[in-house]
Amino acid sequence: MPYTTNSDCRGCTACLKVCPVNAISGKAKNQHIIDAATCIECGACGRTCRFNAVIDEIGTVCTFKDKALREKPKFDLNECCGCRQCEIACPVSCIDLKIQLKKDGTLYPYLKNKKDCISCGFCYESCPISAIEMEELIKL
Questions:
Q1: Which CATH architecture describes the domain 69-135?
Q2: How many CB atoms lie within 10 A of CB 93?
Q3: CATH hierarchy code of domain 1-64
Q4: Domain locations in the chain?
């Protein structure tokens, strides 16, 4: 079941701006609608909404989380096999590959731009050998 909005939506457009697949539509100051056929259930809209107006796939109201504190993937390069599944799974293409000198010339993942990451966890879920953890950042 895709994400939806409720009547608490104030039409601030924050969710619309972060949706990686343009599944959200609506005019400013009016309730926005999430297209069920397009929604990939990444949760970016729910983490961005300050008004508790987004409901997740299991019917729970999502809560806002400051962007600086949202979880980001942490790659265990000692475990990683370089399969590229995380790169493929990322809906915003913020994971890239590079050669790690301590390895055998194989390409391994890294988060090329932390600010573009929407903290969806798709990379984590796609890893066939559990070489990725979602790590909460601590704001100092």
A1: 2-Layer Sandwich (3.30)
A2: 12
A3: 3.30.70.20
A4: 1-64, 69-135
* Residue matched to tokens 């959200």: 24
Token duo for residue 5: 């909005």
pTM of the model: 0.88
CA dist., res. 57 & res. 15, Å (int): 16
pLDDT one-digit tens code per residue, 55-103: 999 999 999 999 888 999 999 988 998 899 999 999 999 999 987 766 6
Distances 111 to 46, 47, 85, 114 between C-alpha atoms, Å: 22, 20, 14, 6
Q: Do 11 and 26 touch, CB atoms closer than 8 A?
A: yes
CA distance 92 to 38: 15
Q: Which residue has the tokens 């400051």?
A: 66
Cβ-contact 88, 126 below 8 angstroms: yes
How far is the CA of 84 from the CAs of 100, 106, 108, 109, in angstroms? 14, 11, 8, 7
